[in-house]
Fold this protein.
Amino acid sequence: MSSASPALRLSLFYGAFFWLIGTNLPYWPVWLESRGLGAAEIGLVAAAAFWTRIFIAPTIALWADRTGRRRTPLIILSITVTCGYGLLSVTDGYFQILLLYGFIGSLMNAAMPLTDSLTILAQRQTALDYGRVRLWGSITFILASFAGGSILASAGPDGILYSIMAGGVLLCIIGFLLPSIRTTPATRSFAAIGELIRRPAFLAFVAASATLQSTHAVLYGFATLHWRKAGIDDQIIGLLWAEGVIAEVLLFAVAGKYLTRLSPSTMLLIAGLAGVIRWTTIGTTTDLGALAAVQLLHAFTFGATHLGMIRFMSAAIPDRMSATAQSLYDSLAMGVVFGSLMMVSGLMYDRFQGQAFIAMAVASGFGIVLTLVFRKLWSGGRVLD
């Protein structure tokens, strides 16, 4: 396997990684609920994984850039995450779960931008297609979310945890097969963080992209619980999650060939418009036909935002700072903004139930405004030499 192409090895790693995500994202709130947690507590536990990444992700990224390595940190993260989920299987009590999952979640969140950074480096060196590599993660997410519905129906909430642990073991094994691509070690990573933060175009991009990605907070935290309360079968819920990611897969599959002329800001504008439609619909109905229709918009609310981020990072950030910039973005966007909105989403859902999705539609509109600001500030070139 070590002689296999970087594209194949990265595809396998994305696949294993997204088995964890595809099981965790739709069904983890059900496991938390089975441990006696209420909606507000579930929101805080989910938010903890985003808040802790503010500090952990940049630290790991600085290590990666200062050593020029990507594979070694990913292997260590994979092993630690898998062991952490094992500890959760014997953990009881809200505060214990909050602390342990906050740590595990931050490591998972740190691993994703590092994996993207490695893939972007491989893309520059071997001309692989990022979208086609990344789509294998999405395909596995589809399988995991569909299988998760059956696992939940047959084995209960603990079956979800065991499925995640099995995926973690596979992730550890594949981690050792990742391509060993190194960059010139960065010698002033801490100073570069300050330089990035002082770049208006970078901050504007982070604000716009973060707002659009964070509109998924209520979906990730409470969609499964909301749909179960509406009487929708667990396996149908799995299909709804899978359907959204199928649409995302199709977008990633064609992006490299047909969407290359779309700028990062255009991708974000598309995501914002799709978000207004998607969240308004989910917030006002549980009709299966309507839900099935707007779940297809996941291709844009998530996929277009993510592709916009990848294109911006590739065009605006030099190789030697790729991991640091990616993780700084991740900490600000998915840590500060997403974490805060995830906490608020628990409080909103506890009080307003499905109408909490309407707030996400409003946030999508605000994301459109921020994208227009970013569009005026960025000329299309590097923001850091």
Remarks:
- The chain has one domain: 6-182+192-377.
- The CA atoms of residues 4 and 320 lie 25 Å apart.
- Residues 6-182+192-377 form a domain with the Growth Hormone; Chain: A; fold (CATH 1.20.1250.20).
- The mean pLDDT is 88.
